[in-house]
């Protein structure tokens, strides 16, 4: 590379950049390749290692029925590409049964097909509710696999060649132009040529207009079929591993963070619902990463690693590990006298109940830490005061766990409040996530009013949703998807960013196996000063104040609910 193009050091250490941009490379006829660094590939490799390398990426059994059954249930937390709430909803509607179904699944929840209004026609044709029609015989080989609905960029290119008189080279220029047009309606000469060619071939104007709308969507983000197929393969492999080896898979995803939509808090709750036992951080057994420990029956259990201790560095763990290699820790005093950790890390270990193996609960362990001379010299937490006889409440124990590890193994906060909900809010029935999933639509009205409660873990405001906000809450039985129409969101947005436990009332939306609640009313379960502070990762949301019509909405990360 250095013999062909000018290369210079980048600002980041050990990085270099080429001085020309991608358009210069095109003019010179040089090949540009995008190399994606995907965290899921790391997670899969770690999982295969935990499984003793009995599989390679290429030898995972293909077309496994149980894997597709898992996907059809929308059981996709932690999976590659299909774990977003929009993708999980689409899994319930599309009901994939083959690998090519997954290729469609990965590609269809994108601005291209959405803006081009291709999603509903495809699903209707797939369900047999709409006939599969081809406006021109030449479209049959191009659109047959997608039931007459153009979904991929290659299909637009093929239509340009077969029906609009484009050469293969010109169709590639069309592909590049898709990323330039944007969504403001500025169609260049090539676009007009494509329009005229399609119309002259006898295609209906309505179909041509739909293709153009889709092209505008591709300018936002659209998938080539080859790209979707590559991603679908990673999706399938991750789904197979989660289906058959949930402990090893979730353990590997946790060890590959940051990645994906969900924090380890949600990943652990998901794997525990599968019957997998998760063991706490142990001073004498845990290593840096979480690991697999078999129980007496040989069943896999997850042992949390020190990487889960909030703020702890790997170098601090290595110092701890060195002392442990000399001899195991025998008491809190033994640990404190041999391991030098920052004050707030010691406090989190105590509040996280790590010293329970020495017979101390959270409060008594914290007393030992506070009394330690090195800790006092660090002047950490000078305002913390402990009553001699006051015990931590159940919710305070949850709070301590979250402050220490960003997760809790005690159960779920909703278990504390479940029995009190109906009396507290005077509602006849408050459903669980499991009851929402098993709701039988034929026995009830089309959109029954329901109430659900849980911890808010995901919030999204896609640019293609016209102000609609999507969120997910979690209770002790699973996840529930929520839809906030713009007026409802604006009514509650001020505290939706600060309250972590929600009670939601709304209409249950049912589309095949997909379930969501159209929100009409939201109430906090706790006063603001008693909220459980769970910190979701990768929870992206628009600015707190709703944007006016036509205003560009910037995106920011909300680290705290």
Quick summary:
The protein is an alpha+beta fold and 561 residues long. It has 24 helices and 12 strands.
Number of helices: 24
Beginning-to-end CA distance, first to last residue: 47 Å
Overall mean pLDDT: 81
Biggest sheet, spatial arrangement of strands: 6-7-8-10-9
Characterize the overall form.
Answer: globular
User: What fraction of residues sit in β-strands?
Assistant: 5-15%
Specify the helix fraction band. 40-55%
Radius of gyration: 27 Å
Largest sheet: 5 strands, mixed, barrel
Number of strands: 12
The structural class is alpha+beta
Q: List unreliable stretches of 5+ residues.
A: 181-187, 379-383, 535-561
List strands and helices in order, with pairings.
Layout: E1 7-9, E2 16-18, H1 22-28, H2 39-50, H3 65-72, H4 85-94, H5 99-108, H6 111-115, H7 119-126, H8 140-143, H9 153-164, H10 168-178, H11 189-200, H12 205-221, H13 225-244, H14 246-254, H15 264-272, E3 278-279, E4 291-294, E5 300-303, H16 314-326, H17 332-338, H18 343-351, H19 362-371, H20 373-377, H21 394-405, H22 413-425, H23 433-437, E6 449-460, E7 469-475, E8 478-484, H24 486-496, E9 501-511, E10 514-524, E11 540-542, E12 555-557
Parallel strand pairs: 3-5, 8-10
Antiparallel strand pairs: 1-2, 4-5, 6-7, 6-9, 7-8, 9-10, 11-12
């Amino acid at each position: 590379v250095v013999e062909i193009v000018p290369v210079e050091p980048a600002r980041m250490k050990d990085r270099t950049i080429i001085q020309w941009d991608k358009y210069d490379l095109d003019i010179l006829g040089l090949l540009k390749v995008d190399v994606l660094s995907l965290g899921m590939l790391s997670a899969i490799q770690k999982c295969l290692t935990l499984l003793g390398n009995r599989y390679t990426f290429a030898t995972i059994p293909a077309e496994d029925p149980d894997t597709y059954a898992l996907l059809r249930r929308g059981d996709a937390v932690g999976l590659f590409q299909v774990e977003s709430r929009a993708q999980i909803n689409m899994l319930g509607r599309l009901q994939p049964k083959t690998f090519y179904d997954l290729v469609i699944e990965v590609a269809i929840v994108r601005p291209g097909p959405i803006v081009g209004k291709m999603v509903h026609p495809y699903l209707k044709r797939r369900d047999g509710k709409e006939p599969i029609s081809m406006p021109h015989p030449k479209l049959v080989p191009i659109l047959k696999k997608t039931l007459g609905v153009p979904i991929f960029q290659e299909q637009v290119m093929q239509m340009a060649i077969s029906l609009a008189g484009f050469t293969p080279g010109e169709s590639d220029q069309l592909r590049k132009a898709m990323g330039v047009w944007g969504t403001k309606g500025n169609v260049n000469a090539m676009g007009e040529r494509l329009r005229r060619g399609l119309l002259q071939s006898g295609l209906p104007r309505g179909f041509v207009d739909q293709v153009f709308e889709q092209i505008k969507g591709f300018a936002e983000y659209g998938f080539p079929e080859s790209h979707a197929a590559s991603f679908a393969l990673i999706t399938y492999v991750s789904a197979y591993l989660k289906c058959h080896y949930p402990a090893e898979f979730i353990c590997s995803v946790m060890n590959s963070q940051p990645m994906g939509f969900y924090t380890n808090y949600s990943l652990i709750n998901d794997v525990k619902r599968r019957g997998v036992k998760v063991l706490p951080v142990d001073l004498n057994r845990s290593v840096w990463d979480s690991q697999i420990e078999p129980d007496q029956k040989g069943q896999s259990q997850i042992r949390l690693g020190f990487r889960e201790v909030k703020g702890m560095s790997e170098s601090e763990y290595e110092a701890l590990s060195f002392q442990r290699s000399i001899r195991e820790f025998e008491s809190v005093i033994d640990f404190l006298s041999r391991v030098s950790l920052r004050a707030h890390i010691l406090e989190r270990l105590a509040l996280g109940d790590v010293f329970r193996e020495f017979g101390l609960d959270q409060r008594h362990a914290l007393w030992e830490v506070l009394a330690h001379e090195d800790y006092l010299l660090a002047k950490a937490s000078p305002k913390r005061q402990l009553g001699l006889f006051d015990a931590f409440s159940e919710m305070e124990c949850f709070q301590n766990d979250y402050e220490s590890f960003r997760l809790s193994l005690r159960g779920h906060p909703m278990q504390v409040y479940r029995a009190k909900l109906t009396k507290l809010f005077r509602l006849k029935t408050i459903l669980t996530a499991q009851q929402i999933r098993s709701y039988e639509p034929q026995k009830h009205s089309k959109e029954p009013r329901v109430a659900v409660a849980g911890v808010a873990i995901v919030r999204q405001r896609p640019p293609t949703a016209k102000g609609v906000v999507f969120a997910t809450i979690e209770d002790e039985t699973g996840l529930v998807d929520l839809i906030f129409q713009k007026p409802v969101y604006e009514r509650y947005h001020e505290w939706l960013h600060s309250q972590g436990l929600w009670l939601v009332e709304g209409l249950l939306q049912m589309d095949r196996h997909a379930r969501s609640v159209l929100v009409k009313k939201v109430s906090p379960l706790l006063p603001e000063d008693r909220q459980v502070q769970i910190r979701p990762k990768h929870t992206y949301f628009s600015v707190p104040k709703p944007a006016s019509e036509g205003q560009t909405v910037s995106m920011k990360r909300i680290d705290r609910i």
